[in-house]
Design goal:
heterodimer; A: 316 residues; alpha/beta; TIM Barrel; eight-stranded parallel beta barrel; four-stranded antiparallel sheet; 9 helices; globular; B: 317 residues; Elongation Factor Tu (Ef-tu), domain 3; Rossmann fold; seven-stranded antiparallel sheet; seven-stranded mixed sheet; 16 strands
């Protein structure tokens, strides 16, 4: 294909045709309008909101973040406005967007997840949900749901019923013995898509005071440091669970450039999300769309979706 | 409330960059085009997020031995800075970035030479607000809190020429005063002239924790004594503007509250984005007419807050 020809950038994502594979990751781009000064959110393939819980949450004391080599730890503690405020203040803004918006839903008990999803499932402005069962920074709920396949099955199935015809993405933690076991449980319980990976539980110590830097003691490691592990886990889940089940993967973990995004796509991700890199470059996600298109032109790829899972491994 | 000017991603050109004294450096930046317009309306206390991720390290011989370990860590996030001075011209705006070399990001800033480019996100947050009815403005500086207060001194002189302004400058030692000048023989007299403030006709009082410059002690104690000695002043006609370590801000806030003086404090928190999405930079704030508190964001709701609003951690007050 010669340059100048239009590349088909669209991807299939759980029965929905997305204009391109670029998403924003939850907790890094607010509720959609915060980054309007920097990018046209409607150019994205999908938008995932900051977590919404049934009641407002203050979040953790500070320090909530610390930078590490090629990464950062965060322990925000799911600070968010809560369901009622989301409906009143954020949803009207989202309703004006053309980009498919997925609400990241978190909670301490299954009933809370179900209550949030059941209420939001009535809203035409929303494309679906991302189930956060992998947040490492809250005392109850969060990651504890995502470590036990039986709990993953139970919560996914309960939320699936409440979600009606909305797309349900389940976000997986890398802090498990075998991520495919968890992925399989989510898929069998009705997940339409899987997003991976969430952050790694980690700690930074202040050697002068000999105390943890974060007020929460531990936080979730994100950024370029975790990218190779994320690529590996995406490929593992793609090969062992998702491909056969026909379930798309939203890949994330340290993506900053189109080249990073391509590794995830080749590994098996149908779409990719930009998280930590948006803190550095608020327009990072839309710049990646341009970079992906350039790659397709350079490599004579007519349809970007042909690259999904295109990894070839030489047999030894 | 959104910031006064929509923030954007801009590139500035470095016109000079050099050491002032001790670990303190100052860099002059020049904005043209849209950047010149955006930063022409920069308010003292607002800040920028500087991208240092692409900068390399200086030769190891140029890195202070105690920083060599820390310097090896690479940089991911932008770093927040407040300008010490901004001057708007007809087709360009210049800004002075006063910084302290204390870690992997600032040590990289020292490598920038005239002509180099620096990427900035800004202007961000809310700066100091100067009410028109104040006859006396007291500037309180602790160590690296100096840059926004210097910028504010210039604004007060330009926009409120009838306001009496007095600077209270504190630091741990003479070596930790981020100001130009010879601080080895700072007298205890109240009218000592710190050049950065003297050029606007503003007298200064200096204290250091160890007495190596000015009077020994905390700057807030000096401010309290000075206020106690004043006659013919009204709390209603007075305002305090403070920037420095949080313990100093807490003491300043307590002093201001006790004397019913309006006070604005410029807060600092570890932050990733600077634009309200990462939620890292939470500041606990009082809710008016209630015992409740809420977390506000330093980057978006501040960094300058009304001192009455901020809940300082216990132990500070």
């Amino acid at each position: 294909m010669k340059s100048g020809h239009k590349v088909d950038m669209s991807v299939d994502f759980a029965g929905r045709r997305l204009a391109n594979p670029a998403f924003t990751a939850s907790g890094t781009c607010g509720y959609a309008d915060e980054l309007a000064d920097f990018m046209d959110v409607n150019r994205l393939g999908g938008f995932i909101t900051k977590s919404v819980t049934l009641r407002p949450r203050r979040g953790n004391p500070t320090p909530r973040i610390v930078e590490t080599d090629a990464g950062m730890l965060n322990a925000i503690g799911l600070a968010n406005v809560g369901l009622d405020c989301f409906l009143q203040d954020k949803l009207p803004v989202i309703a004006k967007l053309s980009v498919p918006v997925f609400v990241n839903v978190a909670g301490e008990r299954i009933e809370e997840y179900v209550a949030v999803v059941a209420r939001l499932a009535r809203e035409k402005a929303l494309a679906g949900f991302e189930l956060n069962i992998s947040c490492p920074n809250v005392a109850k709920g969060g990651i504890s749901f995502g470590r036990d396949p039986e709990q993953v099955r139970e919560i996914t199935s309960a939320v699936r019923q409440a979600a009606g015809d909305k797309t349900l993405i389940v976000k997986l933690s890398p802090c498990v013995t075998d991520i495919s076991v968890i992925a399989r449980a989510a898929v069998e319980a009705g997940a339409d898509a899987l997003s991976l990976i969430n952050t790694f539980t980690a700690m930074v110590i202040d050697i002068e005071t000999r105390t943890p830097v974060l007020a929460n003691r531990t936080g979730g490691l994100s950024g370029p440091a975790i990218k190779p592990i994320a690529v590996y886990l995406v490929n593992k889940v793609y090969q062992e669970v998702a491909r056969e089940a026909g379930i798309p993967i939203l890949g994330l973990g340290g993506i900053r450039t189109a080249s990073d995004a391509l590794e995830f796509i080749i590994a098996g991700a149908s779409a990719v999300a930009v998280g930590t890199a948006s803190f550095l470059e608020p327009d990072c996600a839309v710049r990646i769309i341009d970079g992906l298109e350039d790659y397709c032109v350079r490599h004579n790829v007519a349809r970007l979706s042909d690259l999904v899972g295109s990894l070839t491994v030489k047999s030894s | 409330m959104k910031s006064e000017i929509p923030p954007g991603l801009f590139t500035a050109t470095v016109t000079s960059n050099g050491r002032i004294r001790a670990c303190f450096w100052t860099m002059s930046l020049e904005f043209t085009g849209a950047g010149a317009q955006a930063f022409a309306r920069f308010r003292p206390g607002q800040f920028v997020q500087v991208d240092v991720s692409h900068l390399g390290l200086p030769d190891e011989s140029l890195i202070a031995p105690e920083l060599r370990d820390a310097a090896k860590r690479n940089i991911l996030l932008r770093r927040p800075f407040s300008f010490a001075d901004v001057t708007a011209g007809p087709d360009k705006t210049t800004a002075e970035l006063l910084y302290c070399v204390l870690g992997p990001a600032s040590v990289r800033l020292t490598t920038l030479r005239p002509g180099a480019s620096l990427g900035l996100l800004g202007p961000l947050g809310h700066g100091f607000q100067a009410p028109p009815d104040k006859r006396l403005a007291l500037l309180v500086v602790g160590g690296m809190g100096a840059p926004p207060i210097r910028s504010l001194a210039k604004l007060l002189r330009a926009e409120h020429p009838d306001t009496n302004v007095m600077a209270f400058v504190g630091a741990k030692t003479a070596q930790s005063l981020p100001l130009e000048g010879d601080f080895d023989n700072v007298p205890e007299r109240i009218d000592f002239l710190v050049p950065a403030f003297a050029k606007f006709g503003i007298p200064s009082a200096v204290t250091t924790d160890d007495g190596s410059a000015g009077r020994r002690g905390f700057i807030t104690e000096r401010l309290a004594h000075w206020l106690d000695d004043q006659r013919d002043w009204s709390p209603e006609g007075t305002i305090i503007y403070a920037c420095g370590p949080e313990a100093m801000l807490a003491a300043t806030a307590r002093l201001a509250a006790a004397r019913r003086i309006d006070c604005q404090v410029s807060m600092e928190r570890r932050m990733a984005c600077g634009i309200g999405v990462c939620q890292s930079c939470a500041i606990e704030c009082r809710v008016e007419g209630s015992d409740d508190t809420v977390y506000k964001l330093c980057c978006q709701d501040g960094p300058v807050f009304d001192a009455r609003e901020v809940v300082f951690p216990e132990g500070f007050v």
